[in-house]
Amino acid sequence: MSETTTPIRFEEPAPRAPRGAKSRQVFADALRARPGEWALLGQYSNPGTARTTAYDIRQTKNAQDQPFAPSGAFEVEQRTIVGEHRLYVRYVGGGAA
């Protein structure tokens, strides 16, 4: 009989997501150096805050989200995993000027 195995990845809980423009600039620069790769920005206290932050990052209208400019240069996904509300981001380049 063949058994199907589920891949397991052990990891520590996600850190709280950085809020300031300076720490987000470091994160955005690291993603620009590895285009197309997803990275965990961090976790949020509830899914609504995670969704709003994802929207804000995509729109780059707030000062703390300017490191992700121009709008459309980064993709953002919100996921709830075992009660953790996480944001994943990747640099795709381009975007609106």
Strands side by side in the biggest sheet: 1-3-2
SS content category: alpha+beta
What is the mean pLDDT?
Answer: 89
Strand and helix order: HEHEE
Q: How many discrete structural domains?
A: 1
Contiguous low-pLDDT stretches (5 residues minimum) are: none
Distance between the termini: 57 Å
Largest sheet: 3 strands, antiparallel
Helix content: 25-40%
Strands, count: 3
Helix segment count?
2
Strand content: 15-25%
What is Rg? 15 Å
Shape: globular
Q: Any descriptors?
A:
2 helices; alpha+beta; 3-stranded antiparallel beta sheet; 97 residues; 23% strand
Describe the protein's topology.
Blueprint: H1 21-32, E1 39-44, H2 47-59, E2 74-81, E3 84-91
Antiparallel strand pairs: 1-3, 2-3
Describe the model:
The protein is of the alpha+beta class. The protein has one domain (about 20-90). The protein contains two helices and three strands. Strands 1-3-2 form a three-stranded antiparallel β-sheet. Strand 2 and strand 3 (about 85-90) form a beta hairpin. The longest helix has 13 residues, at about 45-60. The protein is globular, with a radius of gyration of 15 Å. It starts with 20 loop residues before the first helix and ends in a 6-residue tail after the last strand.
Write a concise synopsis of the structure shown.
This protein has 97 residues and is α+β, with helices and mostly antiparallel strands.
